[in-house]
Amino acid sequence: MNNVRDKKRANKSLPFFFTTEFKVFFTIILVSTILLISTFSFDTVPPILNRGIQPATFPKGLLVLIIALTSIIYYLSFKKPWKKEKKLPKPFFLTILSFIIFITISKTLDFFLAISVLSIFVSYYWGERRIFYLLLVSIIFPLVVFIFFEMILGLRFPPGIITNLYYY
Amino acid sequence: MDNLILMMAPLFSSKLLLVLLFGTLFGLVLGVLPGLGPTTGGALILPFTMTLDPLSAIILLTSIYCAGTYGGAITAVLINTPGTPAAAATCLDGYPLAQKGEAGRALGMATVSSTVGGIFSVIVLVFFAPILANLAYEFGQPEYFALAIFGLTMLASIGDGSPIKNLIAGAFGILISTVGKDFMTSIDRFTYGINELSVGIGFIPVVVGLFAISEMLTQSTLLDQVFKRVALKAVKLPTKDDYKKTWKTILRSSGIGSFIGVLPAEGGTVASLIGYSEAKRFSKNPEEFGKGSVEGIAGAEAANNAATGGAMVPTLALGIPGSATTAVILTGLIIHGVRPGPDLFKEQPEFLYGIFGAMLVANVLFFIFGFFGAKLFARITLVPNKILWPMIFAVSVCGTYSLSQSIIDVWIMLFFGVLGFFMRRYGFSVVPVIIGLILGELVEGTLRQSIVIFDGNWLMFLTRPIALTFFVLSLIALAFPLIRSKKNKKII
User: Fold this and answer.
1) What average pLDDT does the segment B4-11 reach?
2) CA–CA separation, B459 and B139 (whole Å)
3) Which residues of A121-159 are buried (b: 16+ CB within 10 A; e: fewer)?
4) What is the H or E stretch that residue B288 is in?
5) CA terminus-to-terminus distance, chain B
6) Best interface-test mutation with A: which of B166, B196, B398, B443 has the largest number of A CBs within 10 A?
7) What crossing angle do the helices spanning B465-488 and B141-158 adopt, rounded to 10°?
8) Does a structural domain hold residue A85?
9) Are residues A67 and A104 in the same domain?
10) Is residue A27 part of a domain?
């Protein structure tokens, strides 16, 4: 009971736009509204060919439903504030950064190089310092996965500076 | 008799038996590792099933489902962390009993009750799936639409997380299914000029992202977490006294689990919680619950494994997934060109009864592996996250890429990974997104076709008795959490 009171007090001390509830509400409403607006640019079917409803009607209905339900949860959060989450630690942001690095390398240099770089980056920042294990996750294991997918599934990976060495 | 022979087919084929053995072992490993589980594992292995024939592929997925559900109990008992969400209730009594130096007894009870629950549910599946499939012959487009709506509203009533947030997540899942070319008119929706999006967003990138990648991000926030492991000497079969105490609980929970599993969109997590609370309600010693009661372990474990067979009933008979993992199995069926529904029962009984038989054998196999190998499987949890998760990432990326050989799919997977992390952080379950995504096309397709049939008159839905029944059930499913929340005060 005291905890609930403390939480309410903690939330009340912040301007409303700093609360978690508002941030979540605002993000969902903003994205849904943008998507809803974009549905108005969908092509329409001429009435003579139209069977049932227009292609945009169903997504529009869903987006209105999402906006309505989000408004309800925000309204209800005044009565019962959400559980306060702990601050996100540094490794989380580094992992997100590693995803961005992965996308950049896989697009510009090589798909497998991107996997290796992400693996070594994540493993290192999560606390692994032993060379063998860093090599295991960044080179040996991705190589096994590559060979497995290549040989057994007959998969062709996108070209890149390392993958090309294998293919050509 | 013919069906019984068909069920035994996996036992007489060395290939199928090998697939079953691998699936059971792999499922156990997935179940034991916290954060992974049969849903993620099934999604990761789906690309590999392309090298198999349809029966082997589905047997592989179902054996992973059965064994993975049981595997969660091993970690629940030994490190007080459920390997799968369905084993959360097992922690309540499994770990306290293990702390008393009776880990072997706790795991023995979990193994026996899981096996009984699993076998019971396969029997339910064998008898009820054909009946439900026959009923489905009465279904037209409006009935299927009403059924899909019922499945989605069930997410609000008994899914994990809050009811309204579950509905938002479910609606979001359906919205994802509308990306790409409209299947009736070929008009692009939400593609924004990106060619790759015109074929829609695939199921696998979304599942792998929401489960595996979001879990990787969750693990990055828990690096300082230390597990207190309880030593295990050997798994012990329950004593006569334990059997006397628990046989009614096991049977009751098996029934509850099978029933909950049959309900569209629900699964082992809900089943185990209800199985556990019912075991406590009927127990002569409710005060022992939470302190190491064998009845508590039996109640939770029999129910969550019974939900596996139950969840396969609507999946195979109607094409409506009974849980998140059966949504993956349903995708596997579709990828392999098998259309679930009543015709499947008529045209390919050998395929269906092969699956039923395989599930039965998988339950026996995980009993054997669990009984003799629990100690070994428990050691898998010693693999540090800093090594395990980069490896899972490599498999996730390659597995996702392999299905359509599109790098965009990998980026979609990463996007849903980040989204899934924040959804879970703010109390939105990711399971409704998966169910919504898989039901989306059915919901929209049947709605639009029904409107064509009814010539635009929406009220005609109410003239169809089966559809009307499902709509009433949907209203009850929506009202139920509101009534319950009056007691628990949990709407948001």
Assistant:
1) 70
2) 18
3) bbbbbbebeeeebbebbbeebbeebbeebbeeeebebee
4) none
5) 52
6) B398
7) 10
8) no
9) no
10) yes
A120, A71: one domain: no
Is residue A74 located within the same domain as residue A105? no
Predicted confidence at residue A115, as pLDDT, reads: 92
Q: How far is B374 from chain A (nearest CA, A)?
A: 26
Q: Cβ A128–B402 below 8 Å, yes or no?
A: no
**Is A118–B393 a contact, with Cβ atoms under 8 angstroms apart?**
yes
Number of structural domains, chain A? 2
- Å between A147 CA and nearest CA of chain B: 11
Contacts of B489 in chain A (CB under 8 A): 80
Asked if B267 and B83 touch (Cβ cutoff 8 Å), the reply is no
- Please state, in angstroms and rounded to a whole number, the distance separating the CA atoms of residues B417 and B409: 12
**Which residues contact residue B277 at a Cβ distance below 8 angstroms, ignoring those fewer than 6 apart?**
none
Q: Flag whether pLDDT at A5 surpasses 60.
A: no
Instruction: Name the pLDDT band for B491 (thresholds 50, 70, 90).
Output: very low
In tens, the pLDDT along A115-159 reads 999 999 999 999 888 999 999 999 999 888 888 888 877 778 888
Chain B residues whose beta carbon lies within 8 Å of the beta carbon of residue A53? 447-448, 451
Contact B42, B386 (CB under 8 A): no
Considering only the beta carbons, identify the residue of B182, B391, B491 that sits closest to A55: B182
At B112 the pLDDT is 94
Which residues form the domain of A98? 90-167
Asked if residue A65 belongs to a domain, the reply is: yes
- In this structure, are A129 and A105 located in the same domain? yes
Task: Decide if B492 and A77 are in contact by the 8 Å CB cutoff.
Answer: yes
* Closest C-alpha to B447, from B435, B437, B433, B461: B461
Rounded to a whole number of angstroms, the distance from the CA of B266 to the nearest CA of chain A is 21
d(CA A88, CA B390): 20
- Find the farthest-apart pair of alpha carbons in chain B and give their distance in angstroms, rounded: 69
Rounded to whole angstroms, the Cα distance separating B221 from B459 reads 51
A96 to B418: CB separation less than 8 angstroms, yes or no? yes
Displacement of CA B482 from its chain's centroid (Å): 25
Sign of the alpha-carbon torsion through B67, B69, B72, B73: negative
Which residue of A57, A69, A113 to mutate against B (max B Cβ within 10 Å)?
A69
Q: Are B190 and A156 in contact (CB < 8 Å)? A: no
Q: What is the pLDDT of residues B368-418, one digit of tens each?
A: 998 888 878 877 777 888 888 999 899 889 888 887 888 889 999 999 999
Q: Which residues of A touch B182 (CB under 8 A)?
A: 55
B240 touches chain A (CB under 8 A): no
pTM summary value: 0.86
In contact, B298 and B246? CB cutoff 8 Å: yes
pLDDT cut 70: percent of chain B above it: 93
Tell me, what's the pLDDT at A1? 47
Which helix (DSSP H) or strand (DSSP E) does residue B243 occupy?
A: helix B240-262
- Report the alpha-carbon distance of residue B27 to residue B87 in Å, rounded: 14
Q: Which chain A residue is nearest to residue B391, measuring alpha carbons?
A: A137
Domain residue limits at B259: 2-488
Could you tell me which residue, A148 or B108, shows the higher pLDDT? Answer: B108
